[in-house]
Amino acid sequence: MPEEGFYRAGRTHPGPQVHGPRTGPPSGGTGGGSSRRPRWDTDAGITDRDVAALRWLGQQYAARSDVLRVLLGRLSPGSPRVAGQLGDATLRDVLDRWEDRGLVARDCLLGHLWVAPTVKALRLVGLDVRAWSFVIPQLAHVHAVGVVRLALEPSIPAGGRWLSERELRREAGKSHVPDAAIQLPDAPDLEAGAGLYGEDVDALPKRIAVEVELTRKGAARLREAWTRPRHGRWQRTAYYAPPEVAGYLTGQLARIRPRHPIQVHPLPDVPGTSYLRLGGAS
């Protein structure tokens, strides 16, 4: 993935929270303070839901239509016919509205619809990154990381958040970064440590690195990654992989002694989505 900055200098906004439908104050209409809100397919300008969805999309480079149906379903102001998923017609309406405003590019690749935010959209929602052009050999990985995020994000403790690869690159520059990270909530009760000159220094929030592996990496690359020194804020690395790759990683763990904890998990299932098999089929 391209090496690039994430946020404008001095800005550190968290990623959008997509744990469930957003709530908001009732509209100002008559009828006893009705709480009805505009539908996704109603052009009421750029809404908070649009911003949350476009930020998520920009953080993940792009998304396939099934990921978008789940993401937008979680942000939906109403009750989708299929719980947690936006319908195909409503998704088309949303994408038409975004495209009419010059906010997304879309294309049919490998038998699926893919969507990526434009430069205009990225600037509108405050992401200082380049617009990503679709690269077919990278689509399977981009998609898998998006599905893993959908699976894990609802279980992140309050006060924690998902950090995308793009944000991590902002911090690390040219150093290696994982595909993503889960930043855990601050621990305010911990005693401050001592800085270089004896000043009080609060501990940085702990993180869990997230790696999505769809193919086998050579043993030498794994050894280098698993024995590389890491900052103490990183608690462990969680790998998510298909069965054949997960079995290979588990075998390598038995012969390589990592310097920090490594966990291997199967790719999580998210209702309404599937993984893109290498070679194009889902």
Tally the beta strands: 10
Low-confidence stretches: 2-14, 17-37
Distance between the termini: 22 Å
Rounded mean pLDDT score? 83
Strand proportion, as a percent range, falls in 15-25%
Assign an overall shape: globular
Number of helices: 8
What order do the helices and strands follow? HEHHEEHHEHEEEEHEHE
Strand line-up in the sheet with most strands: 4-5-8-9-10
SS-based structural class? Answer: alpha+beta
Overall radius of gyration: 20 Å
The biggest beta sheet is recorded as: 5 strands, mixed
Helix percentage: 25-40%
Protein described:
This protein is α+β, with helices and mostly antiparallel strands. 32% of the residues lie in helices and 16% in strands. It has 8 helices and 10 strands. A 5-stranded mixed beta sheet has the order 4-5-8-9-10. The protein has a 3-stranded antiparallel beta sheet with strand order 1-3-2, with helices on both faces. Strands 6-7 form a two-stranded antiparallel ribbon. A hairpin with a 2-residue loop joins strand 2 and strand 3. The longest helix is centred in the middle third of the chain and has 17 residues. It is globular. The two termini are 22 Å apart. The N terminus is likely disordered.
